[in-house]
Amino acid sequence: MTGSSVAVVTGGAGFIGSHMVDLLRACGYAVRVIDNLSGGREQNLAHLRNDPDVVIDRRDIRSLEPGDALFQGADLVFHFAGIGDIVPSIDRPLDYMDVNVMGTVRVLEAARAAGVRKLVYAASSSCYGLAATPTVEEHPIAPQYPYALSKHQGEQAVLHWHQVYGLPVNVIRIFNAYGPRTRTSGAYGAVFGVFLRQKLAGVPFTVVGDGSQSRDFVYVTDVARAFLAAAKTPRVGRVYNIGASRPQTILRLVELLEGAVVHIPKRPGEPDCTWADIGRIRAELGWEPEVPFEQGVRTMLERIEDWREAPLWDPQSIAESTRTWFAMLSQPTVEA
Q: Taking every annotated instance into account, which residue ranges of this chain make up the domain NAD-dependent epimerase/dehydratase (predicted)?
């Protein structure tokens, strides 16, 4: 290792985490990655294999203890590790709470013992539930499924460690991140992974509902820049939304990808629109999204072969994958 400042990236072989590693290296940081590869992929960091200033630790974050050597001497910690697939959280709530909440506590304790200068937590905009838009950070919290709950409880732990132990932290609630290295395997979920594989196979895009629902897609390199800004600021204990603040409909995405469409039932518990109010991060950190949606989609199409081995979803397999989701979230709420 050189004498560079040191950053720890949990989940650093994953989608956003690997782009965070790239940005940190470009800024001269030595980087220590911890990723058990349950969701991340070694190939996301293959270009750094011979970099002496990148260390990759393949442990699970739940194995971390205070005093862990990976955190010793670290200046910054970026915590992305966790279970990110949304639909399976209905079937596996114990796993989600264990990894996304207790795993976060393990990271917090390792960071606290090491005396890190700043920890930035990757939270989720799903904590807002069926939110009013544009959504401000003060919006009521209303998770609709276990993934959203687990990510928000992880966020609460991060802010609690700041309150009680004085750990310097900031939180970023990510809206709909997209870009190269999105998941290409695993559970049914992220729309880009589903659609790009369908395009490669020449089959129709499975559009949920009528496709008029919109998502605040934000490009992954813009996300990484926001995290670095949140780490460098002297501000602590802050929560920031990040999105492009320009919601795009699913039909607009289909138009850019070019292909036929088949419609599948709209899922309960999902918002018609996600739209981040990014006034706070603009004002306090000077962050702005830089990559236009059309440019980001073009970049993904240029790398479409990355999705050649991804699962190919069709209406029948999606219906089977989301069966429990519909059964649970379609139930009427019982008022006290």
A: 8-243
